[in-house]
Each structure stands twice: as structure tokens, then as C-alpha cells.
Specification:
This is SARP family transcriptional regulator. By secondary structure, the protein is mainly alpha-helical. Helices cover 57% and strands 8% of the residues. It has twelve helices and six strands. α10 packs antiparallel against α11 and α11 packs antiparallel against α12. The longest helix has 27 residues.
């Protein structure tokens, strides 16, 4: 069990040190350096910058950059064209020519920044913190950590990027982690006794995601814990009919167990 309140601001790396460079990928790509917005507006330069930011401080191979920017149809002079893009991006990032953010690092290029300056790193730290707190039974603190992680998002990841194969796969990866954080946040809130307060959120999410069994299970649990067993049973029957109609499947084992508990008079919902 946690021995005291958790200070999120001092737990995550991003808040421990005042970096002059800050980058955001959890929404439209943003890059601020020295107090100025350094993200280019040219699509290919933005795409190149995104490739470097998903591996901050590490060399990204030229072949990986070519594959992302042109997939299977690279221009004839692809290396020269890529070199030109790198040159323009370097000038955009360091207009005075003295910053050295974009480094040539054979066999590719590297954005010379600490991973902690990218919001994805902060999100990951908060997610790990929330899981640890949940495992310790500090449900309220875990919920706060997960909520803080979710608040870092301002929209779909890399929303202003025309993604090639690598960045498209990366956005799927990020969205899966966001979904995991959302589910864990709801779980922590329910465990901490805030099931009634979560009903509005859960109804909205379940309506927007009609086949998401995890969300529906959380809604049904929250309704049962709130003494609304008839509503919980109705939600289960609605989902069961929808799953049968659209996918030809029965609800998952967790939902079926919740249904049995609801039908058992006096049996508490966990």
C-alpha cells in the first residue's frame, strides 16, 4: 500500500528537468526549441521530423527514412532528395546554425534530444506509475496517474502527418496504449468507489464503441455496484443481441460471469 500521496509532477521525468526542447506526438506534431515553434509545415519535412522523434536520441537508418517517405516508389535520385530534405529540416530546426539538433550519424540521422522531452515518454512513465499504484491497491492515486496520462493527448497521434507505413504502424501502437490507459483509469476509478460518478462517462464511451466488451463490462459493473441491476441486465442483453447480430458471437467469459452475478439475488458485483 502506498505510504503517502503521489506527486505526479515530480514522478515523471518530463517534469523533473526544464528542457528547452519539447515535442508532442500525442496529437498534431509539435516541436518547440528555445521558446519558438520549430515544427515545419512542409508535409515531407514534417514526416521526416516525425520519424526522428519516434526514436529520439537514436540513429534512424537512411533505408527506414526512404521507406517511410516514399514506400515502394522512391524517386530516382532518392539519396540526394533525402539529403536535401535533411538539409532543409536542419536549417528549419536551427535557423542560426548553432543548435545541432539534427545530426548526421551514419548510416542515418539522429535528432539529438533526450527521449524525456517527447510527450510519449511522459505518457509511458505515467502509465507504468498507474499500474504500480493499482497493483499496490492505491486506487485513487492510480486513477489520478492514468487521468494525467490521458490528459496529455490533444487528438489522434501525429494528426497533422501524412503517415507512411512506419508512422501508420506507430500510430496504431500509440492508440492501443491510449485505450489501455483509458480502461485502467476506469478500473481504478471503479475500485476507488467512484462507480456512480463514472456512469455518464461509461455510457458515452459504450455508445461510441458499441462492440467494445471491456467498456460494456465496466458499465455493467458500475451499474450493478450503484444498485441499478435492472439497467445492468438491460445493458448486457443489448450487447448480447448486438454481438450476435453483427459478429455471430456470444459475450466474453467476463461478461457472462457478470451476468450470472446479476441474476444471483443478493450476490455482490465485484
Amino acid at each position: 500500500m502506498s505510504t503517502g500521496p503521489v506527486d505526479i509532477a515530480t514522478t515523471t521525468t518530463a517534469h523533473r528537468r526544464p528542457d528547452v526542447v519539447r515535442a508532442r506526438l500525442l496529437g498534431p506534431l509539435e516541436l518547440h526549441a528555445g521558446g519558438a515553434d520549430r515544427a515545419p509545415t512542409t508535409p515531407k519535412l514534417l514526416q521526416l521530423l516525425a520519424m526522428l522523434l519516434i526514436r529520439p536520441g537514436k540513429t534512424v537508418h537512411v533505408d527506414s527514412l526512404v521507406h517511410e517517405l516514399w514506400n515502394d516508389t522512391p524517386p530516382r535520385s532518392v539519396r540526394r532528395t533525402l539529403h536535401t530534405y535533411v538539409h532543409h529540416l536542419r536549417r528549419h530546426l536551427d535557423p542560426d546554425g548553432d543548435g545541432g539538433l539534427l545530426v548526421t550519424s551514419p548510416p542515418g540521422y539522429r535528432l539529438d534530444v533526450d527521449p524525456a522531452v517527447v510527450d510519449v515518454s511522459e505518457f509511458g512513465e505515467l502509465l507504468c506509475l498507474g499500474r504500480d499504484l493499482l497493483a499496490e491497491g492505491d486506487d485513487a492515486a492510480a486513477a489520478h496517474a492514468f487521468r494525467t496520462a490521458l490528459d496529455l493527448w490533444s487528438g489522434p497521434p501525429l494528426a497533422n502527418i501524412h503517415c507512411g507505413p512506419t508512422l501508420a504502424a506507430y500510430t496504431v501502437y500509440l492508440l492501443e496504449h491510449r485505450r489501455n490507459a483509458r480502461d485502467l483509469w476506469i478500473e481504478a476509478e471503479i475500485r476507488s468507489g467512484r462507480h456512480r460518478e463514472m456512469l455518464g462517462v461509461l455510457r458515452s464511451l459504450a455508445t461510441a464503441n458499441p462492440l467494445d466488451e471491456t467498456l460494456h463490462a465496466q458499465l455493467i459493473r458500475a451499474l450493478g455496484l450503484s444498485g441499478r441491476r435492472s439497467d445492468a441486465l438491460a445493458s448486457y442483453q443489448w450487447l448480447r443481441a448486438r454481438l450476435d447480430e453483427e459478429l455471430g458471437v456470444e459475450p466474453c467469459a467476463e461478461l457472462r460471469e457478470l451476468h450470472r452475478e446479476l441474476l444471483s439475488e443478493g450476490h455482490p458485483i465485484r
